[in-house]
Every structure is written in structure tokens, then in C-alpha cells.
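Dear colleagues,

For the upcoming journal club I promised to circulate an example of a predicted protein-ligand complex. I picked one with S-adenosylmethionine because it came up in last month's discussion. The inputs are reproduced below in full, followed by the predicted structure.
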Amino acid sequence: MSQWPRALAATGPRFHRLKKRLKLMVVSRFPASYAAATKPGEQYLQEGGVSEHDVEKTIDDFGDQWSRYTDNSGYYGSAELFSDIISPIMSPDEFAGTRVADIGSGTGRIVKMLLQAGAREVIAVEPSAGAFASLLENTKQQSGQIRYLNLPGNDLPDDLDLDYVVSIGVVHHIPEPDSTIAASHKALKSGGRCLLWLYGWEGNETYLRFAQPLRRLTTKLPHALLAGLSHVLNLCLDLYILACRFVRLPLRDYILKVIGQMARDKRYLIIYDQLNPDYAKYYREAEAIDLLARAGFRDIKTHRRHGYSWLVIGTK
Ligand SMILES: C[S@@+](CC[C@H](N)C(=O)[O-])C[C@H]1O[C@@H](n2cnc3c(N)ncnc32)[C@H](O)[C@@H]1O
């Protein structure tokens, strides 16, 4: 393994934290002038003004979440689920022998799935300190095939000549994702492909009527209260799964085929994960396509996974 990724992993977090502190100081001390000094949409952007604080808070929220919940056992971390997530657009065996970056690796669930599918090398990119520690611990047996980068996706080095960039459940938590997708484009070899899984707007309208107002509260709750609420909602989910067996309720396909197969502690985690991170965007299909098209990807294809989320792929 070359030395530069180790060097980046070592210096990256400190440099990133310093950059972050400086930015936050500027934003919190001089919010108006800072906003005025940037182009419209650069720092204070889409959907009701997302500030730099949301970017950092979302990453910190995940750092906290993934230091508490580090276990990826069972169906939640399985090859079957990986196949379910990426099909029918891709199949796991297409990763055999390839070099892949995984943007937003969290605790290493997708990294391990990629290696299990036969990837030769995975570049695991994770900006939060808490998740990064869990990622290192969870993948230490496979570490000879992994380059670890404790960086946000937009800092992905551009000389990687990769076969694939994948990002599963991450880009919808990045308020300004264009720079991450542009960095992914640069890091790919010609003909390389970028695969994203995103929360979908379509199919989630009913769910979001409840979840959006609830998230306004839950993203501000301390862990103990959020954990308590997630346990209560997990009981409600038990009932919903049971009801879905008999009645055509919203999201029935996803509930029965995916959620119903997870262990109870993983269903709790999925609820907590919905309510915890500060920023979450639900993409319309056209927005998902545009995101890849703006970065220069061509031959873009989408698949509406289980009627509630978007799998989108583009070629460099
Ligand atoms: C919902 S978790 C998904 C983790 C993993 N992909 C999985 O499916 O198990 C989202 C992850 O994205 C990371 N993340 C948030 N903002 C990011 C950014 N700007 N660049 C890269 N990763 C980011 C978070 O720290 C978190 O670990």
C-alpha cells in the first residue's frame, strides 16, 4: 500500500478540524458579512437556508451515532442486502477485481460488502471522527485492502483512477453535494461509474408528512430522549409490519422485503438514523439525475428502489 493515504489519514483529521473551527468562527461571529461575501447559494443555500453549521452538525451527529451503534451483523450488513440495494442497476459480481471509493463509510458496512463482492481495493472515506474510529475497528481484518481517508467526500483525491465511486445513504445528508460529486467524477477513470442511493421524495409523501415536523424536534434532542422515542416508535413499527402482512399500506413492499427482515435492534437503528442527523433531503428523480449530470456524468440511469428511494448511476 502506498504511503500517502496513511499520511492523509494522519494529518487529514487535524487539518479538517482546524479548517472547520475557523469556518465556524467566521460564520457564528459575522453571519451577515460572511453570507454577503459568498456567492448566493454557496454557504446559505437550498431549502430555507442551510448554513455551514448544518454541514458540520450533520457530520458530528453521525460521529456520535456511529460511536454508539457499531454493530453491522445480520441482514443489515449482509451480501443479500447489498444485492438488494444495488439491483437491478448493478449486481455484486460487477465489483470483482475493481478499485472502488465508498463515500461516507460510516462504520464500514458497505466497505465490507464491497470486499465481499470481490473488490480488489476500497478507498473508505468518512469525515466524522467517531464513525472513523468504528470503521477502523470493524474492518481491521480487511485493512490490507482498504485505504482510509478521514475526510469529507469533496476532499477525495483526484488521481485515484477508480473503477467505481459508490455512496449509499450519504449524499442526501450533504447540503451542498455538487463538490462531492465533482470530486467523485475526477477520481474515476474514463468509463468509471458513480452509483448513489438516495432517499426519494416520490413514494415518501405520507411518511414525510409525519417525519418532517418530527425531525424539527428530534434533531435537537439529547441522545437519551431520542433513544427513548426511537424505542417507542420501534414498537409502532412492529405493529405496522404486522399490519402490512394483511393490508396494502404505504411502503408495504419495503417494509416486508427489507425492514421486516432486519433484527429488532437494527430496526431501532434505522429509526434513530432517520431522526438524528441535522440535514436530510428527499430527492425527486429529476434532482437525482441533475446531480450527476451537473458533474459531467453521462448515460445516467435510475431505479426507484422499493418505491421509496432512488438508485442512480452515471458513467464518466
Ligand atoms: C447514514 S450514514 C451511511 C453510512 C454507510 N454508507 C452505510 O450505509 O452504512 C451517512 C454517513 O455519511 C457521512 N457523511 C456525512 N457528510 C459527509 C460528507 N460531506 N462526505 C462524506 N461523508 C459524509 C456521515 O458521517 C455518515 O457516516
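Two points we might discuss: The chain has two domains: 4-56, 57-316. The longest strand covers residues 188-199.

See you all on Thursday,
B. R.
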